[in-house]
């Protein structure tokens, strides 16, 4: 229990002034603009949009500036802002099969229709600090361009396996999905709510959970069937129009993990999928989500639930960094009355134990 | 109007609404500079900023799920002749949404449409197409060409 305490207003105001000064840093160094953050700290912006669960690069950049680069604080700011806006409805499901691909790789097929497209990746960089970037006025070389030619369509790897009957198909459905921002989660949550939760989950938590499955805690033998990143069109169906319209494009990353499945009484041996879809270009996050999604399908596929990553309630109730931070940081709030009572209990226990200890020492 | 004609009219309107949604106030303004001033309009709703819940599908082609929200600006206007225009666009751009709604109302008038398509929509669509094509060319340059052992020798 913590209690409201009055007083300290002047101290709080002064603390916030100091915070503003610290945020600005050395005034002889030029101030960062939110445009610079949006354009040059793109993967931080993408993480804040994904976990803030709100696609708006400008707002995410502002949140990062205000939070002094503390991304969890920035995510909190974005989540708080979104609660001030009305909801205009939901989009039609985005069609990632029609993605304008910047990057698309498969670890299961070398030669696949559409090819392996590396895109702007950190892979194959040497991870050596590049001191050229420390100098200002660094202008990157022009990017080579090639005519894409006719064969640019990138069919899904999972569809190729499904056509052979080797991949469990998804159940086609247009069921209205539950929304955890409107109704608190209850368990079992089901896959649509799990995917919503994972899409906004803390990246570090997702990564650790995914890593635990790779190390044998709910082993699921994954292969990256396909990882694709690029732009998809967002369509909505306004009731006043009665037909769908395009409202813009967003960048997303999708990961299809392919996992061996030994079969069950009703299902033949085949591959099953874990699915990751995230706002922005955070590839590690999409891969982690896909592994955790597959682990959480254990019950549906009749597998033994033996590891934390397979436990829906454990994963979903600990994945949100805004909730976790709130509960953790509330420990900083005054607990004076609480602590006084514990102090009295400990003193009473010591007083009761002391005569006995003295007697033992005398014997 | 026959069903086919109506479908074609809807497809044309979807096209210009999609182009205007992606353009933004500055780009639309730049295209309007050469044209006579837009006629007066009244605001029926907005322009206002809200959220749309983005949806994906499990496995890419399965049951829908909520992926996360995005900011959206919308506006509805009426011209003096009674024509109503609508606009929805991704992001926060109040002026862009209002301009798009006015243009949507004007473009529904067959007498005004050809000039506005030629001066505003077609050039904006071409710019947007070129941005897509440029990205596709950059991506194509990073497509891996595997060499087999036979031709490496």
From TrEMBL, chain A:
What keywords appear on the UniProt entry? Answer: Lyase
GO MF terms here are:
lyase activity
Q: Which region ranges are annotated with the description Disordered?
A: 168-187
Q: Which InterPro entries match?
A: PhnI
UniProt-recorded name of the protein: Carbon-phosphorus lyase complex subunit PhnI
**Source organism:** Pararoseomonas baculiformis
Automatic annotation (TrEMBL), chain B:
Q: What is this protein called?
A: Phosphonate C-P lyase system protein PhnG
Q: Which UniProt keywords apply?
A: Lyase
Q: What is the lineage of its organism?
A: Bacteria, Pseudomonadati, Pseudomonadota, Alphaproteobacteria, Acetobacterales
| UniProt superkingdom | Bacteria
Please state the gene responsible for encoding this protein: phnG
Check the record and name the InterPro entries matching this protein: Phosphonate_metab_PhnG
NCBIfam families, per database record: PhnG_redo
Q: Name one GO molecular function term.
A: lyase activity
Source species: Pararoseomonas baculiformis
Please provide an example of a Pfam family that matches this protein in its UniProt record.
PhnG
